[in-house]
Amino acid sequence: MITTVKIELRAPVARIIFSVDPPGKPPAVDYDVIDQLEEAVKGIASAGPDIRLVLVESSEPRYFVVGANLKALQQIDSQSIRPWVRRGHDVFNMLQELELPVIAVVRGFAGGGGLELALACDFIYAADNARFALPEAGLGLIPGWGGSHRLPLRIGAARAKEMAFSARPIDAATAYDWGLINWYGPEEELQQKLEEISASISANSRISVAMEKQLINSADSPDNPRMKFEEAAASTAAMSSSDTSRRLEEFFEKRRKK
User: Fold this and answer.
1) Cα(17)–Cα(1) distance, rounded to whole angstroms?
2) Phi-psi region of 27 (alpha: psi -120 to 50; beta: other; left: phi over 0)
3) Coil, strand or helix: which one is 109?
4) Residue 188, phi then psi, degrees to nearest 5
5) pTM for the full model?
6) 3-state DSSP helix/strand/coil percent for the chain, to nearest 5?
7) What is d(CA 124, CA 193) in angstroms, rounded to the nearest whole number?
8) Which of 136, 172, 190, 225 would staple 130 via disulfide (CB 3.0–4.6 Å)?
9) CA–CA gap between residue 208 and residue 1 (Å, rounded)
10) Is-cis flag, bond preceding 169, omega within 30?
11) What is the pLDDT of residues 179-194, one digit of tens each?
12) Domains of the chain: residue spans and CATH
């Protein structure tokens, strides 16, 4: 199973699209996918003034992005997890710091690093089949790409703790009630909503929107270097635990039996 990241530039919208081969499987993340995402962000940043906003989405109707793939998980240990966390932070921060508005378009399941990817976007629109989760605690891991900092900024500390401690997914209606997403609805209405917001943003001053984004981010965003250090340190400690080793081995064994 291979996940690829590509960009489509059709002014005024740029799309970052996660695709998977074979189709029908969930897009997942490894170092190669992170590298592709970085190149996509750089490509959009240099695309010129006709591009006014960015949509981040998956080609799969049942999945957004589900986090690290099985191969990446099997290769991560207490020594290698720190650069893994830092690399993800660096690229997700690049996405957050794009001058253009970035909207995550979530269909189906957004879990772990997939939810963290959506949180690095300015806001989230979702289909009514969307579900959101931070399942890392079930494997003895830590959300490593900004989830433990960005999620409470969206939904408050108590609800972020509920999601992280329980590792249970929430549906689109709950995510909307909690303030995680800006809108949700059926697919046909989602497309209409995206067209409406694209038109509204494109009608406004590009430089004004860029400066407003910078000002709001500076008021609302955590200290990104500190966030990267804290999650890397916590992830290293978790990965060193015998409980985490047991949980991961049980997870890998279940996957081998499928």
Assistant:
1) 16
2) beta
3) strand
4) -65, -35
5) 0.88
6) 55, 20, 30
7) 12
8) 172
9) 42
10) no
11) 999 999 999 999 999 9
12) 2-203+223-257 (3.90.226.10)
